[in-house]
Q: What sequence folds into this?
């Protein structure tokens, strides 16, 4: 990487440290020509493998774009979408894999989206899981109700104690 000050191609590393729990390395470099210092960062690329076999770098923006459609007309703002995309990325990185099939990205979206907005979740799940009948929706809504009842019961428990 060229020196940002004088464009010289050679530099030496004066310090390197792991950041993001070892998923990235930051290096402090010194230009061997002008002697000025700059910082570079090296990050493990999380690759998404598409059905065609082509891989592309995981993109939070893509997650946001995919979910935004399901959130149309819902009280979900851009901040909430960004946070959701961040949670999706963190949950995938936490599994420790370097490559993930694209359909598993969809799977990782379902959990956080369900917490964010039930209607958006149903829309997204209906496309992602290719719901083909009203029964698919009914079953999903029944599961959703049960999960909501369980989390409400948990909240009550926390308030009591
Ligand atoms: Zn330089």
A:
């Amino acid at each position: 990487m060229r020196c940002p000050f004088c464009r010289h191609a050679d530099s030496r590393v004066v310090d390197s440290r792991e950041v993001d729990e070892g998923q990235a390395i930051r290096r402090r470099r010194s230009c061997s020509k002008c002697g000025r210092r700059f910082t570079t960062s090296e990050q493990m690329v999380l690759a998404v493998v598409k059905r065609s076999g082509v891989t592309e770098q995981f993109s939070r923006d893509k997650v946001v774009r995919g979910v935004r459609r399901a959130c149309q007309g819902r009280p979900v703002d851009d901040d909430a979408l960004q946070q959701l995309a961040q949670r999706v990325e963190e949950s995938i990185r936490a599994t420790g894999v370097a490559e993930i099939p694209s359909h598993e990205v969809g799977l990782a979206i379902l959990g956080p989206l369900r917490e964010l907005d039930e209607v958006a979740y149903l829309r997204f799940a209906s496309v992602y899981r290719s719901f083909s009948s009203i029964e698919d929706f009914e079953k999903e809504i029944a599961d959703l109700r049960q999960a909501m009842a369980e989390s409400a019961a948990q909240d009550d428990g926390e308030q009591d104690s």
